[in-house]
Design a protein that fits this description.
By secondary structure, the chain is α/β, with parallel strands linked by helices. It has eleven helices and nine strands.
């Protein structure tokens, strides 16, 4: 469970937070907590004017929760604690006094869709399909639900949550507002991320902070809501249905 890492770099007013896990950038609990802390730290860093969230590798932006950790959960508190990791990251992105740009270079699943939704501006590859797979393993997108629904609307969120085994392509994500722009190559994506980051790093930080507060108005209750939702997942992950479903998914992998 010690695999994976988070790296942070601040340069020319741009704070870049990068995460990696060898299993398609799936996220165990310790990495989620570290990611939340790094985002909070960059948010407080006076030398960073904008935050860029990205992951390493080419195939997957984030595959969501670590199945290895999910299958090891044996009690409610451990389950709630694990899913609270996603709540911590989403709240860190929401509360950061700076715009968060997400660079989505590959597929996003479950919690990965939550991270893409929690960014203020998301740029992606045209191959970056999305899927909320939670129901397929007997849980549900409870923690990420509020941020995904806020981003793409109730109808599109319902679509993803119910049809949990089907991918939606990048064009679908663009049409529904999850992605702001999509690109045909990594080089084009990186140029766009760099250009917008530089532009924002030279913009008025006070104005951006005020805009950020306006964008996220009405979400203060998420400090408690997302942790309540983590409890829902923490309960369901113990069920026989979920244990069997996760084992089937792992066997296919």
């Amino acid at each position: 469970m010690s695999e994976g890492h988070i790296t942070t770099k601040t340069e020319n007013g741009i704070g870049t937070v990068t995460f990696f896990h060898p299993q398609s950038n799936s996220m165990p609990g310790y990495l989620l907590r570290q990611l939340a802390m790094e985002i909070e730290a960059v948010g407080e860093n006076p030398h960073a004017k904008v935050i860029v969230l990205r992951s390493e590798g080419e195939k997957a932006f984030c595959a969501g929760a670590s199945f290895d950790e999910l299958i090891s959960i044996k009690d409610f508190e451990t389950g709630k604690d694990f899913f609270s990791g996603f709540a911590m990251v989403i709240n860190a992105m929401r509360k950061a006094p700076k715009f968060v740009l997400a660079r989505v270079q590959g597929k996003a699943v479950g919690g990965g869709v939550g991270l893409a939704s929690a960014a203020d501006y998301t740029l992606a590859m045209n191959t970056a399909s999305v899927k909320l797979s939670e129901l397929a393993v007997g849980i549900g997108p409870f923690v990420v639900g509020p941020v995904v629904e806020r981003k793409i609307g109730t109808s599109a969120f319902t679509n993803l949550a119910i049809n949990a085994t089907e991918w939606r392509d990048a064009n679908w994500a663009l049409q529904h507002g999850l992605y702001t722009d999509i690109y045909a190559s990594v080089e084009e994506l990186d140029r766009a991320v760099d250009a917008l980051s530089v532009k924002l790093a030279n913009s008025n930080p006070e104005a951006m902070m005020m805009l950020k507060k306006i964008f996220w108005q009405g979400t203060d209750h998420w400090d408690t809501l997302l942790y309540e939702r983590a409890g829902m997942s923490g309960k369901l992950v113990l069920s026989e249905f979920t244990v069997n479903a996760i084992n089937k998914f792992k066997a296919k992998a």
